[in-house]
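Thread: Modeling a multi-component assembly for a lab meeting

Hi all, long-time lurker, first post. My supervisor asked me to bring a structural picture of a complex we are working on to next week's group meeting, and I have zero experience with this. I have the sequence lines for every component (518 residues in total). Could someone generate the structure of the whole assembly? Inputs are pasted exactly as I received them:
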Amino acid sequence: MRAALRAAEMQLKLQVINPFAYLGVAIYPLIMTVLALFLLAPSSQPGRIAYAILGGGLTGLWGTTYVDAGNGLNTERWMGTLEQLMGCPTPLSVIMLGKVATNVLLGVGAFGLSIGVAFIGFHRVLPPVDGGPFAVSFLLTIVAFFAVGMALAPIFPLARWSFTIANGAEALIYILCGFMFPTTGLPSWVQAISSLLPPTWTIRALYAATGQPVGRDYGQWWLTATLLIVVYVAIAFAFFRFAEARARVSGQLARA
Amino acid sequence: MTQLRVFVSSSILQYRAMFNWATPLGYLAYKLLLPVCQLIFLVQLGTFATGRSNVLYFAVGNALQVTAINGIFGVVSTVGNERQYGTLPLLLGSPANRLATFLGRAAVHVADGISSVIIAFAVAALLYGLDVSRSNLPLLAGCVLLISVTTCGLGLMLGSLSLIMRDIFTIANTVYYLLLILCGINFAVNRLPGWAQVISYSLPMTRGVAAARQAVAGAPLRDVLGLLAGEAAVGAIYVAIGYALFRWLENRARLGGLQEAL
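Re: Modeling a multi-component assembly
Sure thing. I ran the full set together rather than chain by chain. Output:
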């Protein structure tokens, strides 16, 4: 626990002085929010503005959770400190727990910026929300992102191309999880893949709480998301053990 | 002749540098995964917001925008990485013609950017039924070439800035994503506020994308000549600014004994 807290503290300090982190937390979600507002604001269905405002925040939350966590490990590789990180007695999973948790919390700030730019720049506000379901769905969304981020993080030390893949697939997650439009419009085989990702269910619940016509099955969505979160966390810890063992056996950490 | 040799060798070295560190899988991710996912996401968002009837507007715009991946990130990294890898003092100390070196670095990315657009158009045709059988294909090809060159001009200017900035990729990313809003990729430029339209028309792509949309619709060259001339002029200005900036910073580095131009 102490090691995870120290890792979180260190990650926070590194992110504060890292200009690239501001791209994920502030600049990128702002740009995506503005783009979506230009597209959705003139819509004949004003409630859809929620997809621009919350969707912009979600892009920031995902970007900081996963891409910055991966980029952080890639930076360790570049700086020559990845070996020390892997070689120290503290398990990598504990260190990444702290790092990813910090990134998730920083990513939450993107929602404030999205709401701000919608109000100041476009004089738009979120549609009335159903308070209780919205709060539960929002918290579960944060946990879901954390779980997926943790499950994918062990890939980064194993191969240097992994961050390129992560960066390239960023928009794929937006599509699969329904960040800015409902997944119900996607082909059924794509929806089947979407259903395996915990954020899909929490984001659906989040938009339902803003009055979007996506159903009202909160209980079922939350339960599915929670089960998937447990599975992803279990996969994460198993995958971390595999990654550490593999790195030691191959001895190819820096150039992997 | 020497300048041509420098240009060619700079292009070849740039090509080798690009593939030395990048693995085939990583390159494919940038070549396919990033542009295709971005294209699909923005087309889906656009059609969700405005209806299926506009699907080709979003498909064409976003297919053309992928050239900026090479034009901005590729070109910026070729200049910016000199600093990161510690080879900038060697470059500044070499007697090679700077303009040939400068443009040679962009040439590979122009070609790579064009191939990215071709892939994006193929995806748009496959997924969204983009039909170019009635398009003015030679004109469309010319538009794609021009857009690739002009975005590389923007990349060269940003790359020069990397000589005095350690975190140019934050700015490069910001510019790249701003192009989605400012250049008529996802909605018409006239929907932007007046001040933003001024920025829009001072950026590469804006006129090029407008011309390419007309070429897709089958327009003849005379209809888009003004747009293409404007696009070429904007690109030339960015190359000139980038080159002038590079030389100024180089001289500043020499005078001040600043090995990394900072």
